[in-house]
Amino acid sequence: MSENVQSRSRALAKLVATIVVAGALLAGLLFPWVGGTGLVARNSASLLDALPVELTDKTPAGNSQVLAADGSLITYLYENNRTPVAPDQISEIMKRALVDIEDSRFYEHNGLDVQGTMRALVKNVAAGSVQEGGSTLTQQLVKQTLLQTATTPEDRQAATEQNVGRKLREARLAMALEETFSKDEILTRYLNIVYFGQGAYGIQAAAQKYFSVNAIDLTLPQAAMLAGLVQSPANDDPITNPENAQIRRNQVLQRMADLGHITPQELTDISAQPVAVTPGANPQNGCIDATTGGFFCAYVLSYLTGTLGLSENEIKNGGWTIQTTLRPDMQAAGEQAVLNTLAMGDELVGTYTAVEPGTGHVLAMANNRRYGCDAESQECESVNLNVVPSRGSGSTFKVFTAAAALEQGYGKGYTISTSDPYTSRVYRGPCQGRNNGGMYCVPNAGSGYPGTLDMERALYMSSNTYFLAMEDALGSVEGPVRMAERMGMKFDNPVTQTPADQIIEENRGSFTFGTDAVSPLDLASAYSTLAASGTRCDPTPVVQVLDRGGQPVVGDDGQPVVKGDSCTAEAIPAGVANTLNQMLRKDVEPGYSGQTASRAYIPGHEIAGKTGTINNNASVAFVGYTPEYSASVLVWNSVEDRSVGGFGGGKGATIWHDAMEPVLSGRPTASFPPEDPAVAAGTRGSGRPAPAPDNGRGDDRDDERDEPSAPSDGQTPDDTGTTEQPATPVDPPVQEGTTEEDPFGEGFPFDD
C-alpha cells in the first residue's frame, strides 16, 4: 500500500472514529431531552436556565455612534463593523439562499438535525475529509455569539476548542434558543452576526461593503454570493478572488435549484456571469475618521474612559449612542478662524477652545492640525493640544490676582503708584541684573504706562508693575493660586506644570504673569466661572450615553454613568465675578485708552476678556467671553522658544473674533449682571487717588503691554519659582502705541 493511501486511510479512520465517538457521547448526554424519532426539549426550564445573557439579547450590538449636539454624526466606534437590521429589512431571497446552502432543514428541526448530521457523516466519510458540516444554523449562531462576545482568552478558547464538551454545550443552547425564539428571529440573529469578510459583520455591513446597497435590496446573484461567503470569507472573497467567488456562488445557486427555489433558467443565466461587485467604503471608525472635531472626539473618549470609568471594549462593542456637547457650527467657525491666521501645519500652533458658562459643556476644539493622521507631517498631531498644557498664557493670570484682591476688599479703584521697573518687597527672583537684594522685579512692556493706576485700569492696560505691587499688597501668592483653582484651573500635569502647593510654598511672585504651561480647556473653563457669576462647572463633552436599547448606560451602582452637569454654585462670590466682568469689558469694548484686546470686539455684544504674552513672545493668548460663551485662544511656536510675532491682542484676539463673529452676529445680545457696589468700592484704602480715566477711544494697537515673568518654556526654576538666568537691560522700551517685542533683551522672562 502506498504511503499516500496509508495516510488517507489513517485520516479516514480517525475521522470516522471521532464522529462516531462524538455522536455516541452526544446521544448519551442528551438522553434526558431525547424522545421519539426526533430531539425535543422535555425540560425547557433546564435548557433555558443554561442560556447566557449574550444569547437572550434579541440583536447583537452594532457600531457605537458619537453624535454632536444637533444629532449629526461625528464618527462610529467599533471593533467589528456591524449594523443590525430587523427581519423585514433583509431580502427574502437572501434568507432563502443562506438556509439552502447552510441548513436546508432549518425550518424542520428544533436546533439539532440528526438527519443532516448523518448525511454529513456519510459524505465526509466518502470524501475522506470534512466536506459538509453537521451543525445547524442555530448551533452556528450559538458558537458565533459566544465567540464574538468573549471578553477573555479563556472564553474565546472555550468557544472554539475542538472537543465533545463544546459541541454538547452548543447543542443544548441551540435547543434552548429554539424554545425561546421564532425561526425568523433566529435566522435574523444569525444574519446579523455572521462574518462575511472584508471586515463586514452581519448582512447589512456585507451588502454595503460588496454592493453598496441595503440588505433589503439584495438580488438573487448578490444573495447567492453572500450566502456562499459564510463558509470561507477569505478564500471566496469576490474582491480579491473573483474566480473562487464565482465557483462558490454557483454552488449556492445549484443547491437552490435542486431544492426548487429557483428555476433552471435562473441557474443557467446567472451561473454564466462573473461576480459583479460595487465595493463600498467601511463606515468611519474612531476619531481619526471624525467628520468634525477630531480633537474633541479624542477628548470624549478620554472622558468616557478616564472620568466615567468605561472600558474601550464596552464603548466599541456596546452599540451605544454617545450624545456629546459639540456645536458643529462653532467647531466649523473655530477651525476657519484659526486657519485665517495660521496655515494648517504652520510651525505656529493655534488653538481655539470654547465652553458654555453655567453648564461646562465643551462646545468646540479647533486648531491648525489634523488629528491622528498617519502621515509624517507637521500637519498631523495625536496629542490633544486643546487639553494638554503646552505653554503659558501670560497676563491672563492677572485676572486671578484681581479676583483674589477684590475678594479681600481691594476695590476696583484701589490705586498704587509704582516705579518702572518695580521691585517687589515680598517676592524673590531675578531683577534685570540689578543688585536689589535678590528681590523680584518687573518692567512694563512699553513706556506709556502712568506711574499711578487703579486696579481696573491696570487690568485692562495690563500693567505689570501694578500687579506685582498688588501681589505685594496681598502678601502671599496663595490667594491668587487658590482663586485660580476655585475658578477651574488645574496644575496637575507632572511634565509641564508646577503643583499649586509648590507654587504657594515657594511664594512665586511670577504666578500672576502666567508663566507655567496651561491647558486651553482649563483656561476657557476658568473664565466661564466669571461669565456664570461665580458658578464653576467642570468641563464635560457628554450629556448622555445610551445603550443599544436606548436606555442610559449604568455603572456598578446601578445609576446612569452620566449624572448631569457638575457645577459648584458660588465657587467664587457672585459679586466678585460680576464686578470683574464689568472691569474686563473695558479690555475689549470701545472707549478705553490703553486697552489691549480691541480686535476681539464684535459690535452689538457685551464681551469681556484678557490678553496674555509670555517671555520672548513665544506664546500669546486671549480669553474672551460673553454671558453665553467662554473661549480661549493660545498661539505658540512649536519649533523652539521663538517669537510668534506680536502680542495676545494680535493673533489671539483676532482668532477669537473670527471664531465668534459668525456665532454672535445677527443674534440677540445678552448682558452681564451689574457690578456689586460693595465689591467695587472695597474696604481698603489706597496710596493716592487714581488719575481720571481716559474715556476717549483707545489707540488701535495690535499688541498689549504686559510683563516679565518666570520661565514658561521648560527652564528649571530655582527655589523662588523664578528663572535662574539674569536679564540685562538694553534699549529703553518704545513709546505707547507701538509694538514692543522684549524691552529688556532676549532671555529676560517677558510676559505680555
From TrEMBL:
Name the domain of life: Bacteria
List the residue ranges forming a coiled coil, or say none. Answer: none
Q: Could you list this entry's UniProt keywords, alphabetically sorted.
A: Carboxypeptidase, Cell shape, Cell wall biogenesis/degradation, Glycosyltransferase, Hydrolase, Membrane, Multifunctional enzyme, Peptidoglycan synthesis, Protease, Transferase, Transmembrane, Transmembrane helix
Compositional bias of kind Polar residues: 712-726
Penicillin-binding protein transpeptidase domain spans which residues?
A: 350-661
Cellular component annotations (GO), alphabetically ordered: outer membrane-bounded periplasmic space
Membrane spanning segments where? 12-34
What SUPFAM superfamilies does UniProt report for this protein, alphabetically? beta-lactamase/transpeptidase-like (SSF56601), Lysozyme-like (SSF53955)
Which family would the database say this protein is a member of?
In the N-terminal section; belongs to the glycosyltransferase 51 family. In the C-terminal section; belongs to the transpeptidase family.
Q: What is this protein called?
A: Membrane carboxypeptidase (Penicillin-binding protein)
Please give the organism.
Blastococcus haudaquaticus
The record lists the lineage as: Bacteria, Bacillati, Actinomycetota, Actinomycetes, Geodermatophilales
